[in-house]
Structures are given as C-alpha cells and as structure tokens.
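Most newcomers find our protein records easier to grasp once they have seen one. Read left to right, the backbone structure tokens trace the chain's path through space. Once this layout is familiar, the rest of the handout is easier to follow. The record below serves as our worked example for the rest of this section:


***
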Amino acid sequence: MKLNAISHRDRNAKILATLGPASRDAQTIRALFEAGVDVFRFNFSHGTHEEHRARYEAVRAIEREVGRPVGILMDLQGPKLRLGAIEGGSITVKAGQEITLDMRTEPGNAQRLPLPHPEIFAAIKPGDQLLIDDGKVRLTVLDCDLDTARVQVLNAGVLSDRKGVNVPDAILPLSPLTPKDREDLAFGLSLGVDWVALSFVQRAADIDELKALVNHRAWVMAKLEKPAAIESLDAIVATADGVMVARGDLGVECAPEDVPVLQKRIIRACREAGKPVVVATQMLESMISSPVPTRAEVSDVAGAIYDGVDAVMLSAESAAGQYPVAAVEMMNRILCATEADPLQRRTMQAVQTWRQTTAQDAISAAIGTVAETLPVAATVAFTSSGASTLRVAHERPNAPILSLTPHIDVARRLTLVWGVHSTQAADVASMDEVADHASNEVMRHGFGQRGRAVLIAAGTPFGVSGTTNSLRIVWLR
C-alpha cells in the first residue's frame, strides 16, 4: 500500500509497531509504514541512544516524504527487580522446600538467595507470593522482616542468576522511574518523541511524577501490568493521556484466566472516559517465526477491534521476528476485515461514553447523530491542543475524522487515536475561512465526494484550546 501526501488509511484502529534488530534500517522502517504502521514504538529496554537516534531520523524522513505526521512512542524500561548471583549459576528447587531471602551480596545457594531490593522487604507480608522468572517458580512468604524473608517453594523448578522477580500482592514503595529511565527520558524528549510510556504503574501519582518531568513536551501513556494498577484504575485513567493493556507482566502477576476480564475492564474504562487505549503483547506472537499467525491470534486482534480500541501493538513480531513486514500486513488485513463487519460498530457502540457538561462534548455528541443521518464524507476537527479531536473520537462517529492543527507536535500525538487522520494545517481566522479550508482539506486528503456533507467542529476565539462551541455542516461541490 503505497502512501503519499494525500492518502489515508482505510480503517479506524491504529497499528503501533516496535522497532528493533529486525527493523533497524531505513528501508525496513519505510516498508513497515507502507504496510500499515501509524505509530512506531522505541523500546528503551534495549538498544543504545545512537541506535534510537538513527531510527528516529528514519521515521522523520518518512514523515517528510509522505507529508503527513508519523507518531513515535518511547517506552521506558522501568524498575527491574532481580535475584542476585547464585553459586554455579543456578539451583534446582522442589515443592515444599524452604529458602531464606536476604540482602547480602555473596552468591546464593539452596539454603539462601540474595534479593538486593529493600523495597520488596518493606512491602511484603506473610502469605504474599513472589514470582521468579515470569512465574516459572512461585514462592510464598512464611515470615519476614525489613531485610530477610523465609519463603516456601510452591512448585519445582530452576532458579537462575539474576532472574526477574514479580511481587503481585504488594504495592512497592519505589518510583517507577529509575536513574536509567530519567536519562533515557531526557534523551527521548530532546529528540522529540510524541508519547512516553511508563512501565509498572501502580498508582496515579506515578503518572504525575512522570508528567512533571515531561512538562507538556509529550503525552504520557500508563502501562497497566500490575494488580495494584487495576485497584486504582479510574484514577490512573483520569491522570494519564493514554493507557496500554500490557498483557505480558499482567499475565504473570494475575491468573491467566483473569487477563481477558481485566483487558475488557481497562478498555471499557478508557472508552467511557475518552482516553486512547492500546492492547499489547503476543497479539501475533507466532509470526516471530512463522509467516502466518494462528487462528486464535487473529481472533484475539479482532476481539480488541470489536471492543473499539484505539490501537493494537506488535512487539517482538516487528522488532526481532523473521517476518516484521508480513506481521504488519497481516495486522492491517485483520483490522480492515473486522471493521468491515456491520456487527463491529454495533458491538463497539455498546459502551456508553461519559459526556462532560461542556459545549465541546455537546458538539461531539451531535456529530455522532448527524453522521448517522446524513451522507457524511468526513468530520473535520480544528484543534490547538488536540482536546477537540479526542472528544470527537470519543464518540466513535460513523465518518472519518480529519484533524487539523497548526502544531506538528499535536498532529503527531493524535496519530494514535481511533479514526483520526491527523495533519498539520495553517491556522484559521474566521468561520468562512474554516468552511473553505475544511472542504479543501477533505478533498485533498482523499475523503471527498461531491454532494456529501462535511461536519466541522470549531470554536472561537480561534487558536485557543478548549473553545469548541460550534458545529457547521457544509456540502462538497
């Protein structure tokens, strides 16, 4: 699917794809974009700053070539909790075995293991579980104090050097931002990333901490992968600019059968509040090594689209897999086929959105009604901060959303949002200019068909955030 300055995707949901060793060169990145990627994810758990800089420059070169914004999301690694060293590299444990965990630095053995994380000892209590190596070995706490814990092994397995530790039953007293994250964040913001994803969010205050550092230079996405985050779901959704259902660690810390339920709950909370929501992890996992996905994976992706998510994400499939472009092409085909099903819109609209008592939301609600009544070519949202476009997308109207903003950073952030064809455009100064400009842009971007209506959401004074107060209908001639 070759794209140029006047083209647009023939779907509403967006594709977020991770760049990595399999997609590091400019040619592959361009192929991924042409296959359907709307936003590129830079995973700062891997890669050097110079590697990320090269990928950033490749994405921005594509943006200049096609004449439309392309989004970039940087994903911070977050705190990594790990065991210390073990004599011989590993030990085999059996169910019922008791082991002492402590903060001593010498290598561990079958009787004791180093766990150099005081925040874990400060938070755990008897009965809590510790999950080692993505839950391959589970431990339960028998008793503990501020620097030791006696645990019992729940299942046989192997404990190896520096394997990861998950603590699903406790809220850990630690910042989600490590020194590495702060250094990476400063670098990413200096490049000009559009979204910053925060790993291992536990509470809304974690988002506030990151937002203070970002200082409006990007939008902030909360990755929900801990049970504690679900307990604070509404507050996190209200505080974040967007939310990611990070099913990898969520599936480790929660029972597997709970993950689909939690995914539905998170999507519904975001849909009701009008916050962009992304479903991630293992969506087309088999395509890391296979040119085709499993039928279950296809159904998983389609299920997220029936729920009306803003975007679905590819991780290792596009970053390290053997078929990165084919994975994006397949994702694009699934999205298009699912959205072509009339049942998809009816299922998506089963979620009742929360409307604020504002003129902006009244206009957005009216757009949804008009788009069901008239032959509408597109809805045009003039926006300064992006808020007007978000509220229109919140209603999931039955017409494409052409978002016009004079600010390129806002245009890039909106590339992640459902149904939005985002572009930078000149500012306007009068309602007549609004109508002419909107009609021209609809035709230029390939949405137009003479005789069809264009719905225009705008406000006065022009160029001021939050002033959307008018809905105008014009006809293409």
